[in-house]
């Protein structure tokens, strides 16, 4: 049986497909006992729950699926009214937006993308922090040389925001998307300064995925568009990443194995940003 890297309760937004779906599976395999999932796509949440149950884990998590739109403050209130305690949060919900240069983007398009990618994520983080601040400090549960070391490596909670490689580098016809992901990275850094220190002990990090093989990155016939093929070939590994690879990265940042990492944007992009 795999070592339990995470124990307790976790929330995953955008859990109905792609990276969010994979994160839910990875958390379940890694030991969470309570899993809250949310997505605007209710059928996607059902598919995620079914996938976890089909794993036939010895101790599967209790899953609470709460469909809704994280861009809605009313839904955020409803969502967090159903969560009494929280140890981990992985904020995966996001949209790509249209390929347009700034002068051709409408205010409606700008507001829609930012209402999810930045404002919606911020509303979630705000409530996640409130819940985690109520937690007791949990010592690092794996091997240490002393009880003191386990306490030093302890945490009240861990938050992982899914940003993007495009929060670090620019891309043609994607200004509002890249800006929204840069905002997530900047918020992550500032929140980490405020909440990682004693007495809070809440670590906040981001993952910056490259191009990941999800329904969002494939055409209707399942083929990768020429536009994405060019971007894929920029990365030294010359392939798309797998949702499971991003999920494993997120679980690592939740776990005590990353106990000295905070405010970081961990890039998992096959080398795209170094080229």
Report on this model:
- Belongs to the short-chain dehydrogenases/reductases (SDR) family.
- One of its GO terms (molecular function) is oxidoreductase activity.
- Helices cover 39% and strands 13% of the residues.
- Helix 1 (18-30) runs parallel beside helix 2 and helix 4 (107-117) runs parallel beside helix 7.
- The termini are far apart.
- The chain has a 7-stranded parallel β-sheet, with helices on both faces.
- The chain has 275 residues and is α/β, with parallel strands linked by helices.
- The relative contact order is 0.15.
For the secondary structure, the number of strands is 7
The CATH architecture can be given as 3-Layer(aba) Sandwich
CATH class type: Alpha Beta
Per CATH, the superfamily is NAD(P)-binding Rossmann-like Domain
Strand order in the sheet with the most strands: 3-2-1-4-5-6-7
Q: Structural class of the helices, strands and pairings? A: alpha/beta
Mean pLDDT value:
94
Main sheet overview: 7 strands, parallel
Strand content: 5-15%
How many domain units?
1
Topology-level CATH name: Rossmann fold
Briefly characterize the structure:
GO terms for molecular function: oxidoreductase activity. By secondary structure, the chain is of the alpha/beta class.
């Amino acid at each position: 049986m795999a070592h339990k890297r995470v124990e307790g309760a976790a929330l995953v937004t955008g859990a109905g497909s792609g990276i969010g779906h994979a994160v839910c599976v990875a958390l379940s395999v890694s030991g969470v006992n309570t899993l809250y999932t949310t997505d605007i796509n209710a059928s996607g949440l059902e598919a995620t729950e079914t996938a976890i149950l089909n794993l036939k884990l010895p101790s599967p998590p209790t899953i609470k699926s709460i469909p809704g739109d994280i861009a809605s403050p009313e839904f955020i209130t409803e969502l967090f009214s159903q969560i009494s305690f929280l140890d981990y949060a992985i904020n995966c919900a996001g949209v790509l937006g249209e390929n347009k240069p700034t002068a051709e983007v409408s205010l409606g398009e700008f507001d829609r993308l930012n209402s999810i990618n930045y404002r919606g994520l911020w509303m979630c983080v705000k409530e996640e922090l409130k819940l985690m601040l109520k937690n007791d400090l949990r010592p690092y549960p794996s091997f240490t040389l002393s009880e003191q070391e386990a306490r030093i490596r302890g945490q009240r909670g861990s938050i992982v925001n899914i940003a993007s490689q495009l929060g670090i580098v620019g891309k043609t016809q994607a200004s509002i998307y890249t800006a929204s992901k840069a905002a997530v990275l900047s918020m992550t850094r500032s929140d980490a300064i405020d909440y990682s220190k004693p007495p809070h002990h809440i670590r906040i990090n981001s993952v910056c995925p490259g191009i990941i093989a999800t329904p969002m990155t494939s055409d209707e016939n399942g083929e990768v568009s020429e536009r994405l093929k060019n971007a894929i070939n920029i990365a030294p590994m010359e392939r798309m990443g797998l949702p499971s690879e991003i999920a494993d990265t997120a679980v690592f940042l939740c776990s005590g194995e990353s106990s000295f990492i905070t405010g970081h944007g961990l890039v998992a992009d096959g080398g795209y940003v170094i080229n």
